[in-house]
Write a structure and sequence with these properties.
heterodimer, A: alpha/beta, formyl-coa transferase, domain 3, 2 domains, six-stranded parallel β-sheet, three-stranded antiparallel β-sheet, elongated, B: Rossmann fold, 35% helix
């Protein structure tokens, strides 16, 4: 376990950062504005009932944390925050660049009371640059666009596609978590903290691999080819309808075609109609890139007919047994029943004692020999740990009542 | 200002190859750690042989001419070593004794075949941190399953949520899980280093790329486990915005004939600004008055927005919309992304080719520290640092070094 003290002022765009730190054993206080953080208004909701305590977005990214409400824009709230910051290791935030400075809570201010503190800022465009100066706004879709990876994702006759759940700020939060831990590592040698600048546009841009190289050195732009694959040679099918859903598989070139040979053998054993027109190819070394498009299309047609007669499960079980490269296109229901994930104990039950229920959450992103990562509890309710935290700072009943009446907490 | 880097002093012996693994250690190398790639010339890293190449057309690419390799291995060192030669262990073992971290992403069991599983490593270096990263983890019935990005994206749920409801789903970005797991690996290593500082204890890290990636699928996953509701294909739509989509802009723009802009209108204030900027009659149609109205008539709305955006250059429209307080972004491709003024001002793209390569574009790290700048060195030629490793790090004599050359250890 690691033991850093973390204050998190971020909304849903940054909360994964300190969720990971909290699951790693850090003491994390998620600080929300009185009334509750914006993440609480983002669905989906438990039982589809919109309520600040029902947001699954909030649940997902605030496990293992303590929660407190605090209006840091008031002098009293600021005082509480600075008391907490005095012996915190890191502060995470998602405000517009300069906002914390305007409250007297920027990195330079925090450094004065705590030389070793790390401030990690998660924003669409970072702390500086023209899009920051011009006050640009950027949500998930805009960042997918500017990041350069969405262009080639989609059908040629339609717009490029994002994924149907926000991702760009989650990638950024992962980088923010890495950055926070790196800055804290560096502090061991210098005693000094740092300001970590995480721009979602860069974290998304980082998902590009080939794209800028392809243009610069080959004058090639990756075109959209829908569900297919095109690597400058052949257009190949990648997803296939089967009896009860879809499977993923692709023809591969030369010696790689060995990874499909057992499928052709199985079809031959079953006497699949049409298999005699494809099993004469050299499946140990298929010269795919030299084959005519019609030939490739024909092999794909024979497969397409075959898959329609079998279920995802049948095709995958046989793939594992015979060793050909094919997987089901799983959805979240399939994942919960996935044998490999179950065998490794991936999913974790998290107690929601207030609802009298336990729910299954995605578990550890990595396994370790000694326990490093463990979800210790559900996300906090609004202001759940206010009193406990204020008392630890020396506030008494009367002070707490005053803060409550003033709308500070 | 001195440029002290936060990860200075960390020593990584890096048996990674291909994409995801080297991506993780590149963060360490960019920020000051000593990362030594241990690689074979007989079974080289496929990324050393992945196009595009710096070699002139018609000539054979070498192991040092691949730009993809350069992108993910800058600032590292390279030790060329034939691990199948038993004498290689004489060089690797003292390096393990010196290292903080050993990492690999081969098929489960490959390191053990060389006599280098975690237990053996602990005998050499009791507080070593070791990372084994692979597609589905070291254990379980599918630990050795083969496949590539297409398969893992499908298995991990990503393909099922990407695309349009009336079309086949789209395997996202070819190898989507490869873009997530590396960052979890960085986090795991840094957490293990802190754990070691607190307890003196090393850690073995078993990373399944499938499992790591699923953390980013948490919300749809909870929606299933809690509500039994499945997230499905939905184009680019969002429950909290309309218009919320990607629309065509004028041909002949920066992306040639295929120009697009992403537009996000969430609040009523943003919708009012949009109406004013757009100025078309249809914006005042009562069927678009509230968010609920716009969601109910979204097909029609999207078609109308698309007719309007088509008249503009995409970059110009991005500027206009942003100036009006509306989130908008040109859909960059591999060409236009290099022309983006914001990326340029933040020095996101660097130029770092090796001695054989000349100029070579790579990204800088996606995390910036205000106290320092990342290194801008190149990715090593294969075996570039053999002599340094043997003589400087291991203190070998010239004779001894020659003996290993003669024994064909550095192949």
């Amino acid at each position: 376990m690691i033991r850093y003290k973390i204050l998190d002022l971020s909304d849903e765009r940054g909360q994964l950062t300190s969720k990971i730190l909290a699951d790693l054993g850090c003491q994390v206080i998620q600080i929300e504005r009185p009334g509750g953080d914006h993440a609480r208004s983002v669905g989906p909701f438990y039982n589809n009932e919109p309520d600040p305590e029902n947001s699954l977005t909030w649940w997902a990214f605030n496990t293992s944390k303590k929660g407190m409400t605090l209006d840091i824009t008031t002098p009293e709230g600021k005082e509480v925050f600075l008391k907490l910051a005095k012996d915190a290791d890191a502060v995470i935030e998602t405000y517009a660049p300069g906002y914390l400075d305007s409250l007297g809570l920027g990195y330079e201010d925090l450094k004065k009371i705590n030389k070793g503190i790390v401030l990690t800022s998660i924003t669409p465009f970072g702390q500086y640059g023209p899009y920051v100066d011009e006050g640009y706004k950027g949500g998930d879709l805009v960042l997918w666009a500017l990041g350069g990876v969405m262009y080639s994702q989609g059908y040629p006759d339609r717009a490029p596609n994002r994924l149907n759940t926000p991702q760009t700020f989650l990638h950024t939060s992962l980088m923010a978590c890495a950055g926070t831990l790196a800055a804290l590592y560096g502090r061991n040698a210098t005693g000094e903290g740092d300001h970590v600048d995480c721009a979602a546009m860069e974290a998304t841009g980082h998902l590009m691999m080939y794209e800028p190289l392809g243009w610069t050195y080959e004058h090639n732009i990756q075109k959209r080819v829908g569900s297919k694959s095109y690597r400058g040679v052949k257009l190949l099918r990648q997803v296939w309808e089967c009896k009860d859903g879809m499977v993923a598989m692709r023809l591969v070139n030369n010696k790689q075609s060995r990874t499909l040979k057992p499928l052709v053998e199985w079809m031959t054993e079953l006497g699949e109609p049409g298999v005699e027109t494809i099993n004469h190819y050299d499946w140990d070394d298929l010269p795919l890139y030299d084959m005519a498009d019609e030939e490739i299309g024909h092999i794909e047609d024979v497969w397409a007919q075959f898959f329609k007669k079998h279920t995802k499960k049948e095709l995958f079980e046989e793939a594992l047994k015979r060793r050909y490269d094919l997987t089901p296109v799983q959805n979240c229901e399939d994942l919960i029943n996935d044998e490999q994930l179950i065998a490794r104990g991936f999913f974790e039950e998290v107690e929601h004692e207030d609802l009298g229920k336990r729910f299954i959450y995605p578990g550890n992103p990595f396994k370790t020999s000694s326990e490093l990562y463990h979800i210790t509890g559900r996300a906090p309710h609004i202001g759940e740990n206010n009193e406990e935290i204020l008392r630890s700072l020396g506030y008494g009943d009367k002070d707490i009542a005053t803060l409550k009446e003033g709308g500070i907490i | 200002m001195s440029n002290r880097l936060p990860l200075e002093g960390i020593k990584i012996l890096d048996f990674h190859w291909v994409g995801a693994g080297p991506w993780a250690t590149s963060f360490f190398a960019d920020y000051g750690a000593t990362v030594l790639r241990c690689e074979s010339g007989l079974a080289p890293d496929p990324f050393r042989l992945a196009p595009p190449f710096s070699a002139p057309k018609g000539t054979r690419p070498t192991l040092n001419s691949g730009y993809m390799f350069n992108m993910l291995n800058s600032n590292k060192k390279s030790l060329r070593l034939d691990m199948k030669n038993p004498r290689s262990l004489e060089i690797v073992k003292p390096l393990i004794a010196e290292a903080d971290i050993v990492c690999e992403n081969m098929r489960p069991g490959a390191m053990a075949k060389w006599g280098l599983d975690y237990e053996k490593m602990k005998e050499i270096n009791p507080d070593i941190i070791m990372v084994s990263s692979c597609m589905q983890g070291q254990t379980g019935p599918r630990n050795k399953m083969s496949g590539f990005g297409l398969h893992l994206s499908a298995l991990g749920g990503w393909t099922s949520i990407t695309g349009w409801p009336d079309r086949e789903p789209i395997p996202p970005h070819q190898a989507y899980t490869d873009c997530i797991a590396p960052v979890h690996e960085i986090i795991a290593i840094l957490a293990a280093l802190e754990h070691r500082r607190l307890t003196g204890e090393g850690t073995y890290i078993d990373q399944s790329q499938l499992e790591s990636s699923m953390q980013l699928l948490s919300v749809p996953q909870l929606d299933w486990t809690v509500n039994h509701h499945l997230t499905e294909l939905n184009g680019n739509r969002d429950p909290y915005g309309a218009p919320h989509g990607v629309y065509r802009t004028a041909a002949g723009g920066p992306a040639g004939d295929d120009n697009w802009i992403a537009i996000e209108v969430f609040t009523e204030e943003e919708w009012e600004s949009f109406k004013k900027l757009c100025g078309q009659d249809w914006v005042n149609d009562p069927k678009f008055a509230t968010l609920a109205d716009r969601k109910a008539n979204e097909d029609e709305l999207d078609a109308l927005v698309d007719t309007w955006t088509k008249g503009f250059d995409g970059i110009e429209l991005q500027k206009k919309l942003q100036a009006a307080g509306i989130g908008a972004g040109f859909v960059h491709n591999g060409k236009t992304v290099l022309e983006d003024p914001h990326f340029e001002a933040r020095h996101f793209f660097m130029n770092t080719g090796n001695t054989e390569m000349g100029d070579a574009i790579r990204f800088g790290p996606a995390t910036k520290f205000m106290s320092c700048k990342p290194l801008e060195g190149y990715a090593p030629c294969i075996g570039e640092d053999n002599e340094w490793v043997c003589k400087e790090v291991l203190g070998m004599s010239d004779e001894k070094y020659q003996e290993y050359i003669d024994a064909e250890v550095f192949r």
